Amino acid sequence: MIKAEGYHVPVLLAESVDGLGIKPDGVYVDVTFGGGGHSREILRRLDGKGHLYGFDQDEDAEQNIVDDARFTFVRSNFRYLKNWMRYYGVEAIDGLLADLGVSSHHFDDEARGFSFRFDAPLDMRMNQRARMTAVDVLNTYGEEQLADIFYFYGELKNARRLAAAIVKVRAQKALATTSDLLQAIGLSADDIQAAMDKGQPSTANAQWKKDAARLFQALRIEVNHEMDALKEMLNAARDLIRPGGRLSVITYHSLEDRLVKNMMKAGNVEGKVAQDFFGRSESPFRQVGGKLVVPDEAEQQRNPRSRSAKLRVAERMATNE
Questions:
Q1: I need a surface site. Which of 1, 51, 187, 288 has the fewest CB within 10 A?
Q2: Nearest C-alpha neighbor of 22 from the set 95, 98, 92
Q3: How high is the mean pLDDT of the chain?
Q4: Shortest CA distance to 258 belongs to which of 66, 83, 100, 75?
C-alpha cells in the first residue's frame, strides 16, 4: 500500500485552505485528492455537519482515502464535477480547492513515464483505465499535429524541429520508452544514462533539460486532455459555488494559470469581461487577497515541486452585487 505521506507533498497547504474561508458546517470539494493532504486540513476545520468530496481519477489515490463519515471519495476526472454533485444531491457548494498539475507520486513512480529521470514506458496516463498513452501520441499523430501539441502545450519554439526528429526516428523504430524519446530529440545514449544517474548529462547543450521538461509536459497534457478537463471543471465550479463561497486554485504553468485567471476575472475561461450599462464588470467572482500567492523560500527548499506554484483565490458574489 502506498502511504499518503509518501504519495504527495501538499503545496501551499495552509494558504490554499485558508483561502477557502472554511465554514465549519459547509460543503467543500477537493478536486485533486492525491495523497489527501489538503483534504485532511479541510476536514480538520469542519464540524460534524460539514462535508467534503474528494475527486481523483488515479486508482493509486484510493489507498489514501480518509476514514471519516464527513468525507466522500469520488474516483473520477474532475471534469465530471457537476454530474457527480447532482448524483449526490448537492445543488451548491461553499468552496472548491484544486492543486493542478502532476503529483509527487506520479513523478516518482518509475513505471508511469511522467519523468525523464527514469527509463520507463511512455505511459503518462493519470487514469490508468484510459486507453491512450504517450506511446500512442508519439507513434500515430502526424508531424504537424505533434508540432502543434509541442508548441501550444509545451510552449516550445523549436516544436517543428522536435516533431520532425521524432517522425524521422519512429519511421525506423517505434518509440516506446522515455530514453527512446530523449534519444530521438538528440541526446546520446551516454548522456541519457548520465541524466538518469545524476540528473545532469555531460552534453554541452544546456537547453536540453528545459526542452525535455516542456516536451513531457505537452505529451502529458495531450494524453490526459488536461486543458479541456480544466475548462469544464472551472465552468462547473462557477455554477456550483454559492454566493460567499470560494474558489482556491494552485497552478504550475502558464496555460493552467491563464484559464484560472480568466475565470476569476471574467467568469469564463476565455477572459471575456461583460459589463453592465454603467461599465461595471459582471463577473460572478471577485479576487481575494489582491495578489498572487507563491511559496516562500523555505517551502521551495523543502518541496522543489512548489517552485513554479501560484495560488489564486476568488469569492463568488451575489447576483445583485
A1: 1
A2: 95
A3: 88
A4: 100
Contact (CB, 8 A) for 252 and 308: yes
Q: What does the pLDDT look like over 280-306, one tens digit per residue?
A: 777 899 999 878 999 999 998 888 778
Residue 196 has pLDDT above 50, yes or no: yes
Q: Indicate the helix (H) or strand (E) that contains 28.
A: strand 27-30
Binned at pLDDT 50, 70 and 90, residue 3 comes out as: very low
Mark residue 248 as left, alpha or beta (left: phi above 0; alpha: psi -120 to 50; beta: remaining). Answer: beta
Distance (Å, whole) CA 81 – CA 232: 8
Helix (H, G, I), strand (E, B) or coil at 259: helix
Alpha helices in the chain (DSSP H): 4-7, 13-19, 37-44, 81-87, 104-108, 134-140, 143-154, 159-170, 178-184, 189-198, 208-224, 226-240, 254-266, 297-302
Quote the CA–CA distance of 54 and 78 in Å, as a whole number. 9
Alpha-carbon distance values, 40 to 75, 197, 198 (Å): 17, 36, 35
Q: Which of 67-71, 212-216, 246-250 has the lowest mean pLDDT?
A: 212-216
| pLDDT of 107 strictly over 60 | no
61 alpha carbon, distance to own chain's centre: 15
How many C-beta neighbours within 10 Å does residue 321 have?
Answer: 8
Cell digits for 87?
Answer: 448524483
Q: What angle do CA 285, 288, 290 make, to 5 degrees?
A: 115
Extract the C-alpha cell encoding 238: 462557477
Q: Distance between CA atoms of 231 and 147, rounded to whole angstroms?
A: 23
Q: Crossing angle for the helix pair 159-170 and 143-154, nearest 10 degrees?
A: 140
pTM greater than the 0.90 cutoff: no
Torsion angles phi and psi, residue 54, rounded to 5: -115, 125
